[in-house]
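Discussion board: Methods & Data

I've been asked by a reviewer to show the raw model output for two of the constructs in my manuscript, not just the figures. I'm not sure how much to include, so I'm pasting the format here to get opinions. Each protein appears as its amino acid sequence followed by a line of C-alpha cells. Is this the kind of thing reviewers expect to see in a supplement, or should I convert it first? Here is construct A:
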Amino acid sequence: MDLSIEIAAMRLLEGAMELRPEDRSAWLHAQAVPTEVFERARALLASGNATAGFLQRPASRDALRAAAEVPASGDRLGPWLLVRVLDAGGMGSVFLARRDDGAYDQQAAVKFIRTEHLLLDAQRRREMIARFENERRLLARIDHPNVARILDGGSTPGGMPYLVMEYIDGVSLIDHCERRRLDVAARIALFCKVCDGVQAAHRHLIVHRDLKPQNILVGGDGEPRLLDFGIARVLDPDPSSAFTLSGMFAMTPAYASPEQVRLVPLTTASDVYSLGIVLYELLTGARPYSLRGLSPAQSEQVVCNTVPQTLRRALSTGDLPEPERRARLTRIDSDLERIAAKALRKEPERRYGSAEAFADDLRRHLDGRPVLAHPDSLGYRAGKFVQRHRIGTAAASIALAAIVGAGTVAFIQAQQAQRAASDTALINTFLVDVLKVSNPYLTGSEITLSEALDDAAAKVDERFGNRPDLAIDIRNALGESMFARYRLDAAEAQLLRARDDGERVFGPDDPRTVLAIATLASVRKDQDRIDEAQTLFDEALRRLERSGQTALPLYATVLNDLGVMYLIQEDFAKAEGYLQRAVDSDRGSTEPAALDERARTLANLAQAARGRGDLDRADALYRQAQPVLEALYPEGGPHLAVILNNRARLAWVRGNKDGAITLQTEAVAMHRRSFKGDHVMVLVPMTNLARQALDTGKLDLAAEWSEKAAAMADRLYPDKSHHYQVNALAALVATRLAQGRMADAASLLQRTRTLLASLENAPVSTRDYVDTLVARVCGDPATQPPACAPAP
C-alpha cells in the first residue's frame, strides 16, 4: 500500500462525504488529481465499508451500537460501569462511567477509539495497540488543574482501545462565556488558564493537535479544562512521520495550523496557532475564515494563505447584538489585535515561542503593561505608563520623570520577557531533537526514550555551553531521570554540574541549586555512601531553612528522602523524626503532585512505625496512604508497589503469612511492570518474596525468586557490592540449604561473607541473617567448609 496515495484519497473522500450522496461522484470527477488517487477515492466511495462510513459525520448511535467492538451502556470494563453515551462520532464514542468496584465513588468519561479506519493490516494494528498503551501512560503524567486527567485505559476483548478520563460536568469555553456574559477582560483571563494547561502538556512533549472550544470545558467552579490531550498522538501509528492518516483526521480543519493541513511534522507552535483561532473566536464571535463547502485542497489554500481580518474589523461585520458589539469594541485595542495576529502567523517561527509566552503577553495586556507583540518604541512604553498612572502624571515635570523611569523599567521587562520566550523556544527545540533521535527513519536504528535521554545528556554542553542558566534545569531533569533508572554514575555527573553551575549562576540557596544537592544525596544513598549522603541532605535542609524557603514542596521532599535513608539503615527512630517533620511541613495542597508526595511520606512513616513495633499505627498509616495512590495510579506503579511490599512485611510480622506472600507477589508483579530491566526496586521485593516463600515451606517458589534475585543483583552490582546484593545471595544460600545442596550453599556463603565484609554500612538485619546462615553451615567443627574461615 502506498501511504501517500491513501492519504490523498482519504482527503478527497472526506470532502466528498460533506456533499449530498447524489453530488459526490460528479464532484470527485471534477477534482484535478493523479489517476491512482482518483481510482482509490472512487473505490472507497463506492465500497460503503466501515472505512468510508467513518467519514460520515456524525455517525448515528445505532450504527455505533451495531459495530461489534463498541460496548453498550451497562457493560463493565474492569472497575468501570458504563452508564450512558455522552457523545458519538466517526472516531468512536464517549460514555459516562462510574467506579463500580466499591473502592470509592468516582465518575469518569470513557472514550472508545475505533481503529478500523486506520487501514492497517493485522500486524500494524497490533503495533498500534501496543503503542497506544505506552502513550496512555505518558499522557497520564500530565498533571495540571486545567487539563482533564487520564485515569485508566486499555483495550476491550475485541481489541478496541479506550481511555478513562476525568469527567468534566461543564460546557464548552464559548458557551460558558456567552451564558455568563463575560466581558473581554474576563474572557482573556479564562483563556490564559487554557494556555497554562497547554503549556503543561508541552513540557511533556505532547502536542494536542485538535484544540478547539469543544475540547475545552468549563466546570461549575469556573475553571477551564482541556480534553483529549494527546488523543491524536495515541492514534498515530508513527508519531515521527508527517504522513499519518490519524494525524489528518484527528484535527478540525477550521482550527488547524498551516503545517497541520499540509501534513508536515508538528511542533508546539501548531497548538499556539490553534489557540490563536480560539482566542479570535472568543473575542469576535467568529473564526478567522470559513471553510464551509470547500474541498480539502481549497481548505488548505485558505488556511495557508488567508490573512485574517483584525479583531475590530471582524467585530464590525460579525453577527453580534449591537450592545455587545460596542462593548467589545471599546475593550479591544491595537495591542490585543497584534497579540492575536502574532499567534496566527503562517510561519511557525514567527508565532509565540510557547503557549506560556502567548499567555504572558495577554496578561501584560490585562495589566496595562507593554506587550511583546507591539513594535518597540519609547513613546509606546511611555503611553502605557500614563494609562496606568493617570493621577501620578498630572504634573508635567513628575510625569516626564515617571515616564522616563517607567520606560526604562518597561524596556528591561520587555527584554526579559522576550528572552524568556526565546529561551522556551530554545529548550523546546532541544527536547524535540531528543525525540527525533528515537526515529529510525532519521537515525537508521530504533532506540528507546531512555537511550535518547542518555544521548541528550552528552549534548547539553554543545547546545547550552554558553547558557548555564538553562542547562541547570535540564541537568537536574536528566539527573533525576537517570537516578530513577538506577544509572547512578551518569546521574551523579549531571547533578554535580547542576550544583556547581547553580551556585555560580543563581547562588547557593536557589531552589535549583538545592534540588541538585538533594538529588545527589539520594544518589549517594543508593551508592551506599551513607556518610556523604547524610552531609548532602543536611546541607540541602540548612540552605532551605536559612533562606526561609521551608514552605516549598522541596523542603518536605528532602525531609522525606532523608527519612527513607534512615529506614534503609534500619534506624527507625531517626527515620520517624524526619518523616514526621515532612508530614508537619505539609501545606495541605490538593494538587495531585502534593497528594502523591503526602501519601508516600505517610507510607514511609508507617514503615518506621512498623520497625519500632507500633504495628497498629503502621497499619492505620498504610490504609490512609494506599487509597490515595490507587486513585492517582489506577493501574499501579512503583509507589503503590512499595506499599504492597511493606504491607506484606507487616502481615508477616502479625502472623498472616499467606496474606503476606499474596501481597508480596502483587508487589513484585507491579514493580516488574514498571521497570522492564534490572532495577533495585524489583530486586528488593523479589528477595523478600524468596525468603517468605522459604519460611512457609514453598521451596519451589523460594528457589525461583532467590535465583532470579541473585542473578539480578550480580548484574546490578558488577564492580562494587551493596547490602541488597548480600541479601539476595543470602536468600539463595538459605534456599540451597533447604534443598540439601550443602556444597552449593557453602560456596555461596563464602562469597556472601566476602561481599559483606567489604561494606561499611550494612544494616543490622543483613548481618544477623548472614550470621544465622554461618551457624547453620558451620555448626559441626569436623565438617566445616572453607566458607567457615574467618571473614576477610
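Construct B, same format:
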Amino acid sequence: MALAKQAVDISFGEGLDTKTDPFRVPLGKFLALENSIFLKGKRLQKRNGYGALTSLPDTSSTFLTTFNGDLTAIGMSFQAYSSSANLWVNQGYIQPIGLSTLSLVKNNTNQSYADSAIAPNGLVCTVYIDQNPSSLSNVVYRYKIDDSETGQSIIAPTLLTTTDGTAGAPRVFVFNSQFIIVYTRIISAAYHLSFIAVSTSNPSSVTSPVDIANSYVQSTYTAFDGIVANGNLYIGWNGLSTTTKLTYIQPNLQVVLAKTVDASHAAPMISLATDLSSGVVWVSYWSNSTNNGYAVAVDKNMNSVLAATQIISSVTITNLTSYAQSGSLSFYFGVTNAYGYDSSIPSTYLDKNTISQAGSVGSASVVRRSVDLASKAFAINGVVYFLAAYQSPYQPTFYILDSSGHILAQLAYQNGGGYLLHGLPSVNLSGNVASVAYLLKDLVIPVNKNTNVPSGSQTAGVFTQTGISLASFSFLNSNITSAEIGNNLNVSGGFLWGYDGYAPVEQNFFLYPDSVEVQTSTSGGNLAADTYYYQVTYEWTDNQGNAFKSAPSIPVSVTTTGATSSNTINFPYLRLTYKTANPVKIVIYRWSTNQQTYYAITSITTPILNSVTSDAGSFADTLADASILGNPILYTTGGVLENTAGPAFDDVFLFDDRLWGIDSEDKNLLWFSKQVIEATPLEMSQYQTFYVAPNIGAQGNTGPLKCGFAMDDKAILFKASAINYFNGTGPDATGANSQYSQPIFVTSTVGCSNPNSIVFQPQGLMFEFSSQAGNQIWLLGRDLSTSYIGAPVENLTANATVESAVNIPGTNQIRFAMSSGITLMYDYFYGQWGTFTNVPAISSTVFEGVQAFLNNQGQVFQETPGVYLDGSSPVLMSFTTSWANLAGLQGYERAYYFYLMGTYATPHKLNVQIAYDYAAFPSSFTVIAPSNYAPTYGQSTPYGQELVYGTSLTLEQWRVFLTQQRCQSFQITINELYDPSWGVQAGAGFTLSGLNLIVGLKKGYRPIKAAHSVGTS
C-alpha cells in the first residue's frame, strides 16, 4: 500500500549545535554552518567579505586595536594606519613582555647572591650566598630545589660546605640530566674549584665533590664561569700566576685536563659564551692588574681559534657578560664613575664592544647610562638581552634591556637587590620565556618625602630581609591588553606603556630625580638669609597636551646667611626614558621658612631640558621670594599623592573613570589611577592599590587575579576558576574618601584567564573559561548569574583559544577569533551560533564601525559591507543539517525528495550532498545550477540578449530527489560553488529560508542484519 506523503518543514532558525549527540540534534539545527549570518529570523544570508589593507612592514605584530579611532598594530614596533594614504606609519619601538615571579628563598637571614638553573622537568635549583646564622658577619653557601611552577619545596636549603664562605660564589648548570653546582672549597688553606652533581629526576641523589682545579685564585668578582656547549660543560677560571684557565666536564662527569688560554693575564672577572653556529667557545675576561679586557676563542676541543686579544683598555669595570653569534663576540661591561657633585651616588654606564673571530675589535659604545649588569646575556630570535640594575638608596630597581639599550620591563621597583658583584646569575630559556634569579628587599619604612614640614630628617627607605625570587619574562608576548583613557592608549606589558599618537613611551616616568644636592654662596643672587628647601621633578607634555609630572625628589635644604646669596642645585638627568624626541623638562621648586609653598624657580619659556647622554646638570637659584610668587606650585601641595609609573601589568581595564591593572609581581594586587578628568593625563600612584585575597568567600584559595572588566556599576574580577566583583567610587587626589567596597564573591565554578576573550553584550559579559574538558565560552549575566552560552559550539572551542572577541556595532553579532583559524559568530538577538571560515585572525578590533583583523603573516583585513571577497577569495556559504530521523532514532522512513527555497542574488551553484543511515560520508551528489541570472537590460553583448527584460528574478526554488529513499535517516550538506570563468565577481549569492522534506513513514523500526543481532529471539 502506498505511503501517505508528509511534508516536514525545516526552519533555519536554530544555528549550530555541536554539544548534542549528533544523532539526536533536532531538525533545524546544524552540525556545520559556515559564513552565514542571521539578519532576518529563520533565514541564512551570506556574511560580508574582508578586504585587504596594506600589509604591515613586518610580521612581529600580534595585537590590533585603535586609538582615537585610528587602527593600531603592536608587535616589536608601534604601527599606526593612515586610511587616507593606505599605509602603516612606524611610530617607534615597543615590545610588550609578560612577567611573573616566584619566591625562592625567604627567611630571617639575608641573601647577597643567587644563581638558578631550571631542568626540563620544571625543577629549579638555586644556589646562593647566605648569612651564617651562628655568626651573621660571615656567610655560607647553600643550594635548594623547588618546583618552578608552584614553588613547592623539593630539597630544603642545604649547605655546600661546612666552612664559612670566603671565596667566590657558587654557580649551577643543567647538564646531562643533572644539576652541576660549581663552588669554591677550602682544603688545607688552598682554594679548590669543585662541583657536585644533583640528579634532576631524583634530587636526593648527590655525588661527592669533584675537583675542577686545585690552583684557583678566588676573587670578590666573577672569578669563574661556565657554559654548556657542544655536549660538554666548559668552565673557565682565574688561575695561578696571572693565568686564565679553561676545561670542560664530559657527560660522564670526567674533567678534561685544563688548558691555559692566557698565560699573561689573570681573570678575576670572567665570562664564557658559545657561538651556536660554529661551536666556538669564547672566554672573555678583565684583568685588574692591567685594567684591560681580553677575549680568547677556542674550538670544541679547546684548540685555539683566536689568541688572547685586548678588547677594552684602561678602564675599571664592575661586571661583565658576553654573547657570541655569527662569528662575533659582544662584550658587555659596567663602568662606574661618580657624579661630579656627589661621590656617594655612582653614575653607572653599561658599555659594549665587539670582536670577531679574526681579531677585529670594534669601538666601545654606551648601551645605557645609569644601570649596571644584573644577569648574564641571553638571546631570543637573535636579539641579545640582559637584566640590569639601577642602584640608589631611594629607588633600587631592575630593568630588562636589549643590546640597543631599549627598556623592556621594570622589576622590583624601589626594592630591588642591586648590583651582584659576586657574579651574574644565569638566564634559563624555554622557548620565548627567560627566567632569572634576583634579590628582593622588603621595604619596611618608606622614603621620607615630607614636603610640608621642613623639620626632621629626609631619609631613604629602610629595607630588611633580602630574599631571592625567580622572575620569568615572556618575550614576543601576544597576551597584550590596552585601554584608552586620558587621551592616551595604555598598553600592558613589562611596564605600563602610553601612546599619545606620536610615539609609545613609558607612562609617567621610570624614576624620579634622586641624589639632588644644593650648595650655597653668599654672593651672586637675591636670596635673603633663610632656610630653603628644594624639590625637583621631571615633567613632560605629550602630543595630546597632557602634562605629566614625576614624583618629586627627596627635599634637600640649605641655610643662607647673606642678603645676596645664591644657591646651586645639582640634579641627575633622566637617562632611563623613551621620552627623547620631545625632551623631558627638569623643574625645580623652592620652599622657604618665610614663604611656605613650593614655587617653581625654573623658567617656563626657557626650561632645563633633559639629556640622556649626560649624567647631571645644575641650576643657579638667584631669585628672591617675591620674584617667584605666581609661578606654578608643586602638584603634591595639599597632600596630593605623588605620581609613579605603573609596574608590569598582566591586564589593564577601565572602571570608575580610572585605569586598573593587575600587578604582574603580585597577582593579588590591583593598581588604580587617580580619577581621569578633562585635560588631565593618566596618573598612577604606588599608594593606590586594591588587594584581592585569594580566599574570598567560603571556597578556599581560588588563586590569583587573571583579568578584569567593567559591567554596569561593578568591576568584575576574574580568576582562573572564580569570579569576584566590587563597586563604588574611588578616593580623591589625596587618596582619601574611597567608597570602594570589599571584593564580593560571585562563583568558584567558572572564571577567565584570557582577558582578550571578554566582550560585553546586552545580556552581560561573554568570556572564555578553561576547564579540564577544554575551553568553553560562558556568560556572566548582568544579574551575576552564569550560564554556559557556548555549549552549542563546544567542539569548536575545546581545543582552541579565543584570540580576540569583538561586539560589532549595528549588528547583533559577537565574533570570537579562534586560534584554530575560524571565527565563531554569536547572534545575541536570535541566540544562534555560526562560523566564519577564511578569517584566520590572531587579533581583531572594531575599526570604522566594522571588524578589522590581523593574521600571523602581518596582513590586515577590514570587513567590507556589500562585498563578498576575503581578499581575492570568494566568501562561500555552506551548511550540514542534523540527521533527519523522523520515525525515531532507528525508525524506517521513505524520503522522496525535498524542496529548497530562497532568494537569488548573484551567480552561484549549489553542491548538494546527501548521507544516509548515519554514514560518515555522503553517498549522493547533485549540483544545482540556477538559470535565472539576467543582467539589467542593455548590459549584455550583443545588445538586448537578456533572458528576461529588466532585472533578475529573485525567487529560487529547487526540488532534489533522494537516491536512497528507504532509510532510517539522512543528512543534507549544501556547499556554494563559484567559478571565476563566469566572468562576474563573486557576490551575495543567495539566501535560504528553509527546507521542506517530503517523506513517508513505513515502520516503527528498521530491520537489522542477522550478523548484527545477538541473544535469543
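Answer (T.O., handling editor elsewhere):
This is acceptable in a supplement if you add a one-line summary per construct. For B, something like: The first strand starts at residue 6 and ends at 11.
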